[in-house]
Each structure stands twice: as C-alpha cells, then as structure tokens.
Design goal:
Number of helices: 1
Order of helices and strands: EEEEEEEEEEEEHEEEEEEEEEE
Radius of gyration: 17 Å
Helix content: under 10%
Strand content: over 45%
C-alpha cells in the first residue's frame, strides 16, 4: 500500500527569514492524518534567507538530521558540535539528555534550501552526539547510498533507532530497486525532479508512505534526487 503526501498539501510556516513546508504535524501546524510515520516524526523543507536562521534553542531525546539541498548551513551546539553543512553532506545530532543549538545561513547574499528530519530515538537519555559526513555524488549516482543507519553501517552517520536512510541521484529513465524485509515500512521523499514509485507518480516535495509491499521500484522521469527511509 502506497499513500501519497502531496507537496502542495503540506503545512506552512512563513516568517521574514523562513519559508517552511511541513510534511508532518509540526509546531503550530497539526493534522491528525499526518502526525509522523512510524519513528519518522518530522520532514521540514526550509528555505532560509541570507543571514537568517534558527537562533539557539533546545531539544532532547530526538535524532535530528539536516540535509542541505542548496547553499550552506552553519551548526553550533552546546555539546561542542560545530560545522558548515553543504550539499552532499549529512549532519546528525542526537539531542539525548538535552542540547542547545543554532542553525544559521552564513551567507549574506544567498538563501539556503534544506530538509530538517526528526526521528524518535530507540531510548531516552542518550549522551548528546554530533556527527557529519560527506557522500560524494559518484557514491549516490544511480544507486541507493546508505547515509544514516544504526552503528554507522557502511560509513553512514550513526542513528540510535532501527531506521536506515538512503540517498539516490537518478538520471532521466534511470531506476533503483529496494526490497523491504518482513514487517518493514518505507517513506520516500522526492527532493528534486519527479519519479514513479511502483508506478505511482511523485513530484518534488511529495512524499509517500509504504506498507505491505515486498519491494520498491523507483524510476526517474527527469533528473531527480530522492531520500528513502527503511523503517521498522
């Protein structure tokens, strides 16, 4: 079963420096039909204006992934994590017992386009942990590259939850396939372009919840980028 979450039906936040779209209920936006999927709680697509960003604020007991699509984003946190994230890199912060962080656009002239992803951790009270890794285009071109997983499998960033996140760059007509294990679920998020998922058409910003499917066939109609979550 595939359930599409259309891009145009997402929640929205607009401020002078932020244009954000919420796949799932977030902050003041609430839709009981879309209050997360399995352990995936948040996918926000954010456009942050030059020199804008999220000032210091606190989180606890959450796995937070930042995925930059265009531009750059500067991270600082109270546990000592610090870095500037660019396309092709994945940042993961385990908020655990509590951490304060900021995410700012360091450019004075260019916006930054990113995805903010929250995943429920396997347990509370994890020691705060920051990690970032680069995944070159050639590792993601035409294949599903594991970029986040338990124990940092295959050189990915470490997740404290039974979730595996894959990234793929697909040329027009190119496809990738993935088998789902027994009682596993999936979420496909289209970052750029347009694809079909087991014959179902999806465009940029669309997501799809997948249950009771043995395998997934993802095929690009144009130059595309997708994120695939394999979920318990």
């Amino acid at each position: 079963m595939i359930t599409v979450r259309p891009s145009g039906e997402r929640g929205r936040t607009r401020t002078p420096w932020l244009d954000g779209s919420h796949t799932f209920s977030f902050n003041r936006y609430y839709d009981p039909r879309w209050a997360g999927f399995r352990d995936l709680l948040v996918i926000n697509e954010d456009f942050v204006a030059p020199a804008g960003g999220f000032p210091p604020h606190s989180h606890s007991d959450m796995e937070i992934i930042t995925y930059v699509i265009e531009g750059a984003l500067e991270h600082r946190d109270s546990a000592g994590g610090r870095g500037i994230i660019r396309p092709g890199e994945v940042q993961k912060m385990s908020a655990g017992t509590g951490v304060t962080h900021s995410e700012m656009n360091p450019s004075q002239t260019e916006p930054v386009h990113l995805l903010q992803i929250w995943i429920r951790p396997e347990r509370g009270g994890i020691k705060p942990y920051y990690e970032e890794k680069s995944f070159p285009e050639e590792e993601r071109r035409g294949r599903l590259r594991l970029v986040a997983a338990p124990a940092g499998a295959e050189g990915s960033v470490t997740l404290y939850q039974d979730v595996r996140l894959y990234d793929a760059l697909l040329a027009p007509g190119e496809g990738v396939s993935q088998r789902l294990g027994p009682e596993r679920h999936a979420w496909l998020q289209v970052v750029k372009g347009s694809v079909t998922l087991n014959g179902t058409s999806l465009g940029a910003g669309d997501g799809a919840a997948v249950s009771d499917e043995q395998s997934l066939d993802i095929r690009a109609a144009e130059e595309s980028e997708v994120l695939l979550f394999d979920l318990a």
